[in-house]
Amino acid sequence: MFLQSLKPFYNGPIISGQQGTHAHSMTNLQKSLSSCLKQLRENGHQHLLCGGLKGIEKESLRISKDGIIAQTPHPHVLGSALTHPYITTDYSEALIELITPAFADITKTLGYLQDIHQYVYDHLDNEILLSSSMPCGINGDESIPIARYGSSNIGKMKHIYRHGLWHRYGRTMQSIAGIHFNYSAPVSLWLALHQQNNKQLNLEQFTADGYFGLIRNFQRVGWLILYLFGASPAICKSFFKSRPALMSQFEEFDQGTLYHPYATSLRMSDIGYKSKNQASLKIDYNSLSAYVTSLTNAIQTPFPDYEKIGTVVNGEYRQLNSNILQIENEFYSIIRPKQIAESGEKPTLALKRRGVRYVEMRSLDLDLFNPIGIDEGKARFIEALLLTCLLSDSAEFSEQDHKINNTNQLAVANFGRKPGLTLVKNQQAIPLQDWAFEILEAMQPVCSILDEKDPLKPYSAALAQQTRGVQNPYLTTSARMLEQMTELKQPFARFALNKSTEHLDYFKQHQLDQVTVEQFNEMAELSHAKQKAIESKEQLPFDQFLKNYFAQC
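-> structure tokens emitted (553 positions)
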């Protein structure tokens, strides 16, 4: 859907500050709207774009008030990290993960995220949540406690998987925090699209194809998220204690901070989630079956470097296996298809059996200027971009496309605000700003439809705000961070800690209503009861449990 990365959407000049060019480009854009969106309008179905479900998963590192990573266990009062639906941990015992249900109204999603934060802050004992994506206050890999999930086989598996990540990538990389934005289009929209396209596929197959079209388009243009919302242009030198050789590729901001002057999201660069260990993976996004097959192959294919680590050494598991990927979650991607898995079910099998339920967009840094890490305008912009990717044509990927997309993403992560930066689109160089304006133009009709019943036009307002960020790179989050660090003469660690303390003060000034408090208290108690029930059942020997898990087909 995006017909060769928005090429059919736009044939005229880009938006600029000059009079006249904007109107001309809008005319050309509207002439070249996809047949999909035109048909929705003609059939009176454009309102079906509204009401897609949005959920958020937000990671934050627990730290002491002096900025050091917490060595304490996940707070018992918050519930069981194994079984709580909304409060858990990611890689580290100190890396808390807050999860919202999915709501059609994004204000409800963000309201729930606000409530979870409030509840957590009300129960943290002399600790705070680090407001930045890049970790500070760590002292090498050994200072990062790996998350624990109890004595059950599933709990052991989650812990051993994290041990494997440590041996493969180091713990420091795993302590990076981010936000995952989950989105599913309305079922009624899929029904309308299926009907108007008159496909021979059944609805589940049609929906899966549609979501994979969205995914391919987002991988082409997802660098825009890094440019606009990247909030990790600088890194504490302590981040490199376990990998000092990587420091040489950066400039020194001050005695404690390294950076790239034009970086947007170093979290999404090679020193973050863009792991070179996975650079050779060839995951196929051209269909659900191809995706499942290629991901399964990676989980089943031995990798010599990981074989050297060993799986069981002196009776202790170092990793779940020595294959390219231990399990599906190890594959790092800026967006991936998701289906809710049943207890103990492999994610690839959940997709194979029940299709794609939603997409998980994973490239969003924490906004350290916001107490919950994300604001409403940003969330509305992301929803509109995902819908634009869904409703636009999407050519299949070649191996070369994978390389180009990866190169573009890394360029924007490291140098996104550099004047004159060019990316590669359709095998040709294009200025980042030009391409960004094309994407924003393509989003305009989608935002207009999403705004039809709201006199405040919040989606169009969000689009206008981000258009200003393309026109003026100094308005982006990454630029604002570096500007304030310079003005305040603060290293990144001090700046991030001060922002984190401001957010602590913010939550101290607010409180939850008693009904909500009791609901969270009940969820915490129930989660502990669920974990005890799981652990009280007779367990298979772990070796057999693991064998059975990987034998699922």
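The domain at 3-524 is CATH 3.30.590.20 (Creatine Kinase; Chain A, domain 2).
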